[in-house]
């Protein structure tokens, strides 16, 4: 009888591996979005670190991310792709716990940033290789669009809920909830057995010039990550001056982007993806330059809507092309990709530190985004 009950409940879980990737990515994105948008402000506003210290935190995180990525690729080759994803969870939990106990333990920021960098390196190396393995080249635009759709839908409610909880309960409950959800996200990947994908990766393969041909584009992807996740929240918090309003901005961005990402992803499988990219790249860059000019609350919401529209059209064809280019040499491709993205993160942060101006970072990202035309 117990065996029968176990079999009954197991039928409710998804069996298609790609579906498991979608669900796992969505749950993780929701968990991360509960706190991710607010981490720069937690350090800068709640804990009283200077803007320079806050930006140095993210520089060190990006450096550890880059350094750890080749080792994550070696680990994934030996232990399995999903085990690499799983290993990212405890590192992130340590990161969350160190943030949680920061007022008590006073842990150096570079240690906390290092845990975040390790977590991201192992998670993304595993996830990139899993998705490259289970997705289909002919339908990759649609499949990447679906993955992005589910993660965006998940992140749509995360900042809103996170902002509400922080405003009325505090950061602590948000840290605990995010930790529990991260374990759940890893669980869904293991609903199917680990498929040990055989590939060879060596540090020497990173020196191959063919893995450097898209370096400028990947650097631009890195500047975008920091502009969206660090510079923009810090910049608009002085205007909104409220965690719930900041969460509402994240909600609005996700709500508008989600449908477009899904639709354009499916549409891009039937036409030249580069045509879509060339058409929208200028508008995506303009959205970031306009962000630097906002001074009022309604400005923030107006550019958020415009940016959500451009991002929704832009992201699926770009993401699908990234996976298409990985065919035949996925591990060294994704290692070099992550290293250059981390370099882009660092370059934008250093630039903002040098000019001591957040708006300047948003403008630089707008121009850097045009590197997609070289991809």
Structure keywords:
single chain; 375 residues; mainly alpha; Growth Hormone, Chain: A; 15 helices; 0% strand
Short description:
The protein has helices at residues 2-10, 17-36, 39-46, 51-79, 81-100, 102-105, 109-134, 140-168, 171-189, 215-240, 243-268, 273-291, 297-324, 330-355, 358-368. The chain has 375 residues and is an all-alpha fold.
- The radius of gyration over CA amounts to 20 Å
Question: How many domains make up the coordinates?
Answer: 1
Could you tell me how far the N terminus lies from the C terminus, measured between alpha carbons in angstroms?
A: 57 Å
Low-confidence stretches are: 1-13
Helical stretch count? 15
Averaged pLDDT: 85
- Architecture per CATH nomenclature, i.e. the level-2 architecture: Up-down Bundle
**Name of the CATH homologous superfamily:** MFS general substrate transporter like domains
Helix content, binned percent: over 70%
Write the CATH fold name.
Answer: Growth Hormone, Chain: A
How would you describe this protein?
It contains 15 helices and no strands. It has one domain: Up-down Bundle (Growth Hormone, Chain: A). The chain has helices at residues 2-10, 17-36, 39-46, 51-79, 81-100, 102-105, 109-134, 140-168, 171-189, 215-240, 243-268, 273-291, 297-324, 330-355, 358-368. Helix 4 runs antiparallel to helix 14, helix 5 runs antiparallel to helix 9 (171-189) and helix 8 (140-168) packs antiparallel against helix 13. It is globular. Helix content is 80%, strand content 0%. The model is unreliable at 1-13 (pLDDT under 50). With 375 residues, the chain is mainly α.
């Amino acid at each position: 009888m117990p065996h029968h009950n176990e079999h009954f409940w197991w039928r409710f879980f998804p069996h298609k591996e790609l579906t498991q990737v979608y669900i796992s990515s969505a749950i993780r994105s929701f968990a991360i979005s509960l706190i991710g948008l607010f981490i720069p402000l937690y350090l800068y506003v709640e804990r009283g670190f200077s803007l320079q210290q806050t930006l140095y935190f993210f520089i060190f995180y990006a450096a550890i991310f880059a350094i750890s990525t080749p080792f994550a690729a070696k680990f994934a080759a030996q232990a399995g792709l999903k085990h690499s994803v799983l290993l990212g969870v405890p590192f992130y939990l340590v990161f969350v716990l160190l943030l949680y106990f920061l007022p008590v333990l006073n842990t150096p920021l570079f240690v906390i940033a290092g845990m975040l960098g390790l977590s991201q390196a192992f998670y993304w190396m595993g996830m990139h290789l899993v998705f490259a393995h289970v997705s289909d080249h002919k339908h990759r635009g649609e499949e990447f669009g679906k993955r992005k759709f589910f993660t965006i839908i998940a992140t749509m409610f995360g900042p809103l809920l996170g902002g509400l909880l922080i405003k009325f309960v505090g950061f602590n409950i948000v840290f605990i909830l995010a930790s529990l959800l991260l374990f759940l996200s890893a669980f869904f990947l293991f609903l199917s057995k680990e498929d040990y994908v055989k590939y060879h990766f060596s540090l020497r393969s990173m020196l191959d010039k063919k893995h450097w041909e898209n370096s400028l584009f990947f650097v631009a992807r890195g500047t975008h990550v920091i502009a969206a996740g660090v510079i923009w929240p810090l910049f608009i918090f002085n205007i909104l001056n409220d965690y719930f309003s900041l969460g509402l901005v994240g909600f609005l961005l996700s709500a508008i982007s989600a449908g477009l990402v899904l639709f354009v992803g499916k549409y891009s499988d039937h036409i030249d993806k580069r045509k879509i990219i060339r058409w929208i790249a200028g508008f995506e860059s303009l959205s970031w330059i306009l962000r630097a000019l906002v001074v009022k609350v309604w400005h923030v919401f107006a550019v958020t809507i415009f940016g959500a529209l451009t991002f929704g059209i832009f992201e699926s064809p770009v993401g699908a092309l990234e996976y298409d280019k990985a065919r035949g040499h996925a591990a060294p491709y994704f290692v070099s990709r992550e290293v250059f993205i981390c370099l882009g993160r660092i370059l934008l942060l250093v630039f903002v530190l040098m000019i001591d101006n957040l708006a300047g970072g948003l403008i630089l990202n707008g121009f850097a985004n045009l590197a997609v035309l070289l991809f």
